[in-house]
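Aim 2, interim progress: modelling of the zinc ion-bound target.
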Amino acid sequence: MSSTQNNKSSALQAEKVPASMSTSMLEHISLNKWEDSGFEWAGEVIPNSFERLATILATEHAQSNILLKANLYRRNDVLHLAFTLTGEVWLTCQRCLQPIVIDLTDDYDIALLDNESQIRLVNEEQDYLLLDEIITEQSPERLLPLKKLVEDEILLKTPMAPKHDDCEMTVEQFGEIPEEEESENPFAALASLKGKL
Ligand SMILES: [Zn+2]
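Predicted structure of the complex, ligand included:
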Protein backbone atom coordinates (compact mmCIF):
# COMPACT_ATOMS: atom_id res chain seq x y z
CA MET A 1 0.00 0.00 0.00
CA SER A 2 2.86 2.33 0.60
CA SER A 3 4.23 2.01 -2.92
CA THR A 4 2.60 5.05 -4.39
CA GLN A 5 4.81 7.19 -6.50
CA ASN A 6 2.77 10.06 -7.80
CA ASN A 7 4.67 12.98 -9.13
CA LYS A 8 1.51 14.94 -9.50
CA SER A 9 0.67 14.85 -5.84
CA SER A 10 4.13 15.84 -4.71
CA ALA A 11 3.92 18.82 -7.02
CA LEU A 12 0.64 19.71 -5.37
CA GLN A 13 2.24 19.38 -1.98
CA ALA A 14 4.83 21.98 -2.87
CA GLU A 15 2.14 24.41 -3.91
CA LYS A 16 -0.22 23.97 -1.04
CA VAL A 17 1.64 23.62 2.19
CA PRO A 18 -0.93 24.29 4.87
CA ALA A 19 -0.33 27.58 6.62
CA SER A 20 -0.94 26.09 10.02
CA MET A 21 -1.70 22.68 11.35
CA SER A 22 -5.30 22.17 12.22
CA THR A 23 -6.21 20.45 15.45
CA SER A 24 -9.80 19.62 14.65
CA MET A 25 -10.28 16.73 12.29
CA LEU A 26 -11.70 17.61 8.92
CA GLU A 27 -14.85 15.49 8.60
CA HIS A 28 -15.50 15.77 4.87
CA ILE A 29 -13.89 16.91 1.65
CA SER A 30 -16.24 18.55 -0.83
CA LEU A 31 -15.79 16.76 -4.13
CA ASN A 32 -17.71 19.49 -5.93
CA LYS A 33 -15.01 21.92 -4.93
CA TRP A 34 -11.87 19.84 -4.97
CA GLU A 35 -12.12 16.75 -7.15
CA ASP A 36 -10.58 18.50 -10.15
CA SER A 37 -7.94 20.65 -8.49
CA GLY A 38 -6.97 18.28 -5.70
CA PHE A 39 -6.96 18.99 -2.00
CA GLU A 40 -4.65 18.69 0.94
CA TRP A 41 -5.14 18.71 4.65
CA ALA A 42 -2.76 18.15 7.53
CA GLY A 43 -3.39 18.18 11.20
CA GLU A 44 -3.27 16.37 14.47
CA VAL A 45 -6.18 14.15 15.33
CA ILE A 46 -7.24 12.96 18.74
CA PRO A 47 -7.71 9.17 18.82
CA ASN A 48 -10.76 9.49 21.06
CA SER A 49 -12.48 11.69 18.48
CA PHE A 50 -13.05 8.59 16.34
CA GLU A 51 -16.20 7.14 17.84
CA ARG A 52 -15.68 3.52 16.85
CA LEU A 53 -11.99 3.56 17.72
CA ALA A 54 -12.69 5.19 21.09
CA THR A 55 -14.61 2.13 22.27
CA ILE A 56 -11.47 -0.04 22.14
CA LEU A 57 -8.87 2.45 23.37
CA ALA A 58 -7.21 1.80 26.72
CA THR A 59 -8.47 4.18 29.39
CA GLU A 60 -5.57 3.53 31.77
CA HIS A 61 -2.97 5.00 29.42
CA ALA A 62 -2.88 8.49 27.93
CA GLN A 63 -3.37 8.66 24.16
CA SER A 64 -1.30 11.05 22.07
CA ASN A 65 -2.48 12.83 18.98
CA ILE A 66 -1.92 11.22 15.60
CA LEU A 67 -0.52 13.27 12.77
CA LEU A 68 -2.60 13.01 9.59
CA LYS A 69 -1.65 14.28 6.17
CA ALA A 70 -4.33 13.74 3.56
CA ASN A 71 -4.15 14.34 -0.16
CA LEU A 72 -6.91 14.06 -2.74
CA TYR A 73 -5.48 13.75 -6.23
CA ARG A 74 -6.05 12.22 -9.66
CA ARG A 75 -3.92 9.63 -11.41
CA ASN A 76 -4.87 8.13 -14.78
CA ASP A 77 -8.08 10.09 -14.47
CA VAL A 78 -8.97 8.20 -11.29
CA LEU A 79 -9.55 10.04 -8.06
CA HIS A 80 -7.39 8.88 -5.14
CA LEU A 81 -7.36 9.63 -1.46
CA ALA A 82 -3.88 9.18 -0.03
CA PHE A 83 -3.00 9.79 3.55
CA THR A 84 -0.14 9.30 5.94
CA LEU A 85 -0.67 8.55 9.58
CA THR A 86 2.11 9.09 12.09
CA GLY A 87 1.45 7.95 15.60
CA GLU A 88 0.15 5.20 17.79
CA VAL A 89 -2.75 4.24 19.98
CA TRP A 90 -2.88 2.37 23.26
CA LEU A 91 -5.22 -0.58 23.51
CA THR A 92 -5.61 -3.24 26.19
CA CYS A 93 -3.70 -6.50 25.98
CA GLN A 94 -6.28 -9.27 25.95
CA ARG A 95 -3.97 -11.52 27.93
CA CYS A 96 -2.68 -9.41 30.85
CA LEU A 97 -5.14 -6.50 30.54
CA GLN A 98 -2.27 -3.99 30.60
CA PRO A 99 -1.90 -1.26 27.96
CA ILE A 100 -0.30 -2.23 24.67
CA VAL A 101 0.87 0.20 22.03
CA ILE A 102 -0.21 -0.22 18.39
CA ASP A 103 1.75 1.71 15.78
CA LEU A 104 -0.48 3.22 13.09
CA THR A 105 2.32 4.90 11.14
CA ASP A 106 1.87 4.06 7.48
CA ASP A 107 0.95 5.39 4.05
CA TYR A 108 -2.52 4.64 2.81
CA ASP A 109 -3.94 5.10 -0.66
CA ILE A 110 -7.48 4.38 -1.82
CA ALA A 111 -8.71 4.79 -5.38
CA LEU A 112 -12.18 6.31 -5.46
CA LEU A 113 -13.96 4.92 -8.50
CA ASP A 114 -16.97 6.44 -10.24
CA ASN A 115 -18.03 2.96 -11.29
CA GLU A 116 -16.74 -0.59 -11.65
CA SER A 117 -15.51 -0.02 -15.19
CA GLN A 118 -12.70 2.04 -13.70
CA ILE A 119 -11.25 -0.97 -11.91
CA ARG A 120 -9.16 -1.67 -15.02
CA LEU A 121 -7.50 1.73 -14.61
CA VAL A 122 -5.90 0.86 -11.28
CA ASN A 123 -3.35 -1.83 -10.64
CA GLU A 124 -4.14 -5.07 -8.86
CA GLU A 125 -2.75 -4.18 -5.45
CA GLN A 126 -4.54 -0.86 -5.35
CA ASP A 127 -7.22 -0.55 -2.68
CA TYR A 128 -10.36 0.96 -4.09
CA LEU A 129 -13.86 1.98 -3.10
CA LEU A 130 -16.84 2.91 -5.21
CA LEU A 131 -17.82 6.53 -4.66
CA ASP A 132 -21.51 5.62 -4.81
CA GLU A 133 -21.04 3.36 -1.80
CA ILE A 134 -19.25 5.86 0.41
CA ILE A 135 -21.08 9.06 -0.44
CA THR A 136 -24.45 8.81 1.20
CA GLU A 137 -25.72 12.23 0.24
CA GLN A 138 -25.24 13.70 -3.19
CA SER A 139 -26.84 17.06 -2.53
CA PRO A 140 -26.37 19.92 -1.96
CA GLU A 141 -22.81 18.77 -2.54
CA ARG A 142 -20.91 15.50 -2.75
CA LEU A 143 -18.97 15.10 0.45
CA LEU A 144 -16.19 12.55 0.77
CA PRO A 145 -16.32 11.24 4.37
CA LEU A 146 -12.61 11.71 5.12
CA LYS A 147 -12.87 11.06 8.83
CA LYS A 148 -14.83 7.86 8.36
CA LEU A 149 -12.43 6.54 5.72
CA VAL A 150 -9.41 7.28 7.92
CA GLU A 151 -11.09 5.59 10.87
CA ASP A 152 -11.90 2.55 8.72
CA GLU A 153 -8.20 2.17 7.87
CA ILE A 154 -7.16 2.63 11.50
CA LEU A 155 -9.60 -0.07 12.55
CA LEU A 156 -8.29 -2.40 9.85
CA LYS A 157 -4.78 -1.89 11.14
CA THR A 158 -5.83 -2.42 14.74
CA PRO A 159 -5.85 -6.05 15.92
CA MET A 160 -9.17 -7.33 17.20
CA ALA A 161 -7.51 -9.00 20.19
CA PRO A 162 -4.19 -7.23 20.78
CA LYS A 163 -1.60 -9.12 22.82
CA HIS A 164 1.93 -8.24 23.87
CA ASP A 165 4.45 -10.29 21.87
CA ASP A 166 6.25 -11.04 25.12
CA CYS A 167 3.25 -11.03 27.37
CA GLU A 168 4.16 -12.69 30.65
CA MET A 169 0.68 -13.74 31.53
CA THR A 170 0.02 -17.27 30.33
CA VAL A 171 -3.10 -18.20 28.48
CA GLU A 172 -3.80 -21.07 30.88
CA GLN A 173 -4.59 -18.71 33.72
CA PHE A 174 -7.61 -17.46 31.90
CA GLY A 175 -8.32 -20.54 29.84
CA GLU A 176 -9.10 -20.43 26.18
CA ILE A 177 -11.55 -17.79 25.23
CA PRO A 178 -14.06 -19.46 22.93
CA GLU A 179 -14.31 -17.79 19.56
CA GLU A 180 -17.64 -16.19 19.08
CA GLU A 181 -19.55 -17.84 16.33
CA GLU A 182 -20.90 -15.46 13.82
CA SER A 183 -24.62 -15.68 14.28
CA GLU A 184 -26.79 -15.47 11.26
CA ASN A 185 -28.54 -12.17 10.82
CA PRO A 186 -32.05 -12.72 12.21
CA PHE A 187 -33.40 -10.45 9.52
CA ALA A 188 -31.91 -12.46 6.69
CA ALA A 189 -34.84 -14.87 6.81
CA LEU A 190 -37.25 -11.98 6.74
CA ALA A 191 -35.60 -10.57 3.67
CA SER A 192 -35.95 -13.84 1.78
CA LEU A 193 -39.64 -14.00 2.69
CA LYS A 194 -40.30 -10.47 1.63
CA GLY A 195 -40.83 -11.17 -2.06
CA LYS A 196 -43.40 -13.86 -1.31
CA LEU A 197 -45.74 -11.90 0.92
ZN1 LIG B 1 0.04 -8.49 27.88
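The longest strand covers residues 66-75. Strands lie at 29-30, 39-45, 66-75, 78-86, 88-92, 99-103, 106-113, 127-130, 143-144.
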